[in-house]
Description:
Elements: H1 12-31, H2 35-48, E1 52-53, H3 54-60, E2 69-73, E3 79-83, E4 93-99, E5 104-115, E6 118-126, E7 139-146, E8 152-157, H4 177-180, H5 184-187, E9 195-198, H6 205-209, H7 214-225, H8 228-241, E10 251-257, E11 262-264, E12 270-273, H9 276-291, E13 298-304, H10 321-332, H11 338-346, E14 349-352, E15 356-357, E16 379-382, E17 386-387, H12 398-410, E18 415-417, E19 427-428, H13 432-436, E20 441-446, E21 448-449, E22 457-460, H14 461-477
Parallel strand pairs: 1-2, 4-13, 4-14, 14-20, 15-21, 16-18
Antiparallel strand pairs: 2-3, 3-13, 5-6, 5-10, 6-9, 7-8, 7-10, 11-12, 12-22, 16-20, 17-19
Helix pairs in contact: 1-14, 9-14, 10-11
Amino acid sequence: xxxxxxxxxxxxxxxxxxxxxxxxxxxxxxxxxxxxxxxxxxxxxxxxxxxxxxxxxxxxxxxxxxxxxxxxxxxxxxxxxxxxxxxxxxxxxxxxxxxxxxxxxxxxxxxxxxxxxxxxxxxxxxxxxxxxxxxxxxxxxxxxxxxxxxxxxxxxxxxxxxxxxxxxxxxxxxxxxxxxxxxxxxxxxxxxxxxxxxxxxxxxxxxxxxxxxxxxxxxxxxxxxxxxxxxxxxxxxxxxxxxxxxxxxxxxxxxxxxxxxxxxxxxxxxxxxxxxxxxxxxxxxxxxxxxxxxxxxxxxxxxxxxxxxxxxxxxxxxxxxxxxxxxxxxxxxxxxxxxxxxxxxxxxxxxxxxxxxxxxxxxxxxxxxxxxxxxxxxxxxxxxxxxxxxxxxxxxxxxxxxxxxxxxxxxxxxxxxxxxxxxxxxxxxxxxxxxxxxxxxxxxxxxxxxxxxxxxxxxxxxxxxxxxxxxxxxxxxx
Length: 478
């Protein structure tokens, strides 16, 4: 079976809608490079669309009814949003679930040091990356520093035209003979991914003038010169952010590629930018929830953290935040029965909104051409993910796939069925298997990505828009 290129079916009106939607998406991934930034942005959009916080509903003891729109935030790193439908929640929900974390470098808790006249921040990479791809790039620092008095300082440095940027050095080609003989996994080691943040030492001449006597002067100059670049950086952090070195202990700082997402190709048919796995699916997910017409079944959008490291922790999908929030929603409809919660979850349908690998002709031998996604061929359905023998996979049943094919045909949504790559080459996982444990129907469904997990990933605008249309169709018809 051969899928048609989606671009060929659009009329002028549809192309205009596609361009508008993708421009909004491009702005989203340019502005939102961390889970916290995504959460703030999404909550703002939800509130503008009439959603109210679950906390305010609980405080006012508001009784929920069909048409109500509610959201809940998990530790400023994840969002759950609901639109209450006409049918009882016991009959289940239609769920779109994506993640808003992406591979990156995290600053360690004791990070600042000086070596060879440079000040560095020590990092620990997050998620699956090819470490050699992160050297010599302009990098930005995003995140928060929380002081002992619980005041929070937001850091976002490296994105504006007049901002400084940061970088990881690489060995010059003239001296790299031994380096180039190493395996790609060893060319750059994890402990070598420290970013250079300064080179100018704190001034020593003024300090020396205050010393009494030649011996005291020499001692003062020696003391001043020791870690002088580090001291200079600390002085700047104090001046601009009122941060002490000790404050790194309670900081969450992420190192990401600097700069905005860009249109790609002479024809502007693609988008190149950081963090598209999985924000290219999270954006159309919550936009579909906002834009869908009145719904019979309650709709839910799950946007979570920590997927790239196994969905662990209090902000990951394996936490009870989702289940607890659904229980709170049920209670606000007047039902506190544990069995109703179990029925609601088991009767639900879900699209695990996550990306798939796109066919790359340069590396054709890594793909099964008959069972791979192609850029520009529409929304991707992955019946199963996992590694090699489907290990760690959710495997959707044929009946669920048949229903989805029918509703997507009804709304002329272009779909393609795909696997991640050749069977023995590896694989990957999503949050699908975690939701499947409730007994609901789940399948992975999203956008094909080139350069997945690289600092700059590439997607097709047609696939992004078609995925948004597919999510709308799912919420309306399933």
